[in-house]
Design goal:
The chain has 84 residues and is of the alpha/beta class. It is built from 2 helices and 3 strands. The chain has a 3-stranded parallel sheet with strand order 1-2-3, with helices on both faces. The chain is globular, with a radius of gyration of 13 Å.
């Protein structure tokens, strides 16, 4: 067993050719895989979705389309890891 990894892609055709073990895909502008500059709630939501996806992607090469919209969505303020 190794360290689980996940990719965040904004160019699906390249991701399909490279075939990383697990990937989330966002249809966003090139150069902004985590979101808009200084939009921390959006960036945190992308990271949380990536970490959540680690738990349920079982098939190698899976690409999950994330339906987040660029500049049109409100993102909840939550932390990635909450202390117990």
């Amino acid at each position: 067993m190794g360290i689980p990894t996940i990719g965040i892609s904004i160019v699906k055709q390249y991701t399909e050719k490279v075939k990383p073990p697990r990937t989330i895909f966002l249809k966003w502008p090139f150069g902004h895989p985590l979101g808009e500059p200084f939009h921390t709630a959006q960036q945190r939501a992308v990271l949380c979705k990536a970490f959540e996806s680690l738990a349920y992607i079982e098939e190698p090469g899976t690409i999950i389309d994330i339906p987040f919209r660029w500049k049109k969505e409100k993102y909840p303020l939550h932390t990635i890891m909450k202390p117990k």
